[in-house]
Amino acid sequence: MRKLIIALAFVCLGSGCANTTIRDYSQLPFGKVTACAVDLAEKADIVINYLTQANKFDIGIGREDGGVYDYVLFDYNQLEHFFRSQKHKDLIVIVFSKNKWSEDEIQSKAKEMNLFFFRVGYNRVVIQQGYGAGRGIWSDKTNPQQKL
User: Fold this and answer.
1) What does the H/E/C string look like for the chain?
2) What is the pTM of this model?
3) Quick one: which of 4, 33, 141, 147 is 20 to 30 A from 26 by CA?
């Protein structure tokens, strides 16, 4: 999370909107939705990225090849055992990469992901949208089968 905050600070410095007295990311000029999205990501048991062009997940595993870091991407079938075996399943945050999907396509993909992550045992699934500057929130669902 520290790397994200540092990156956001550099964006502000480069854009000419820097204020050297700001020490809290929530004061950066990204709005309340981005602040909420970042807060949710900080509370999550795991944050993963969904690369919309590839229709695959990036869970932060990669390999170096000749000085270039390549992420290893996975589909649902490849990750089902991984997610079922996780100990902590209170909250998962999935961040969609930038995309050109219609609202219907996004809602369909969000529904698909909610069903998958509820099936493997997560209690809450938050789906966010990555933008060039900040994040949006597409979906925030609680598992209807959650034991109270």
Assistant:
1) CHHHHHHHHHHHHHHCCCCCCCCCHHHCCCCHHHHHHHHHHHHCCEEEEEECCCCEEEEEEEEEECCEEEEEEECHHHHHHHHHCCCCCCEEEEEECCCCCCHHHHHHHHHHHHHHHHHCCCCEEEEEEECCCCEEEEEEEECCCCCC
2) 0.76
3) 141
